[in-house]
Amino acid sequence: MRRWKGSASPAEVWMVDAANAPVQQCMGRLLVQTDGIGFYDVSPSVTKWLEEAQVRDGLLTLFLRHTSAGLTLQENADPDVLHDLKTALDRLAPEGGPWRHTIEGPDDMPAHIKSLMCGVQLQIPVIGGQLDLGTWQGIYVAEFRKPAHRRSVTLVFQGTTITQAPL
């Protein structure tokens, strides 16, 4: 990868020479055991997966394979942020609301609504083998159901790997 030497744009731009560094694709799966409602920081596990996959520069897509949980980037420095997010989501989609779908329990439909609001996929740039996250950002699986669950996150990296010749 080399730095772009173009006009006076204040943004940093890197260019990858695709002829010397063909795009590779790496796929994997991360299993997350939850203990019930809460936010579970998976950043260390994702970082470890990137190291094992020996990636360098590209884009990581994360996809949560569930409809009653979410995947989000959030602040990882102050736990009060996660507490306040849970409080806000509970107010927007309360248990015991006027929901028709209750066959899986009173927490299920609110969990689906929270999943809809939170989303189930993320795309994060990877530069030099590192997630290009902000200082206080962490990757979280948001569990919206009361019982423990085993959640599955599919990881897809597209880009260059360290096994390829450097540019």
UniProtKB/TrEMBL annotation:
InterPro entries per the UniProt record, alphabetical: UPF0047_YjbQ-like, YjbQ-like_sf
Entries under Pfam families matching the protein: YjbQ (PF01894)
The organism's place on the tree of life at top rank: Bacteria
NCBIfam families found in the cross-reference section: TIGR00149_YjbQ (TIGR00149)
Family: Belongs to the UPF0047 family.
Protein name in UniProt: Secondary thiamine-phosphate synthase enzyme
Classification lineage: Bacteria, Pseudomonadati, Pseudomonadota, Alphaproteobacteria, Hyphomicrobiales
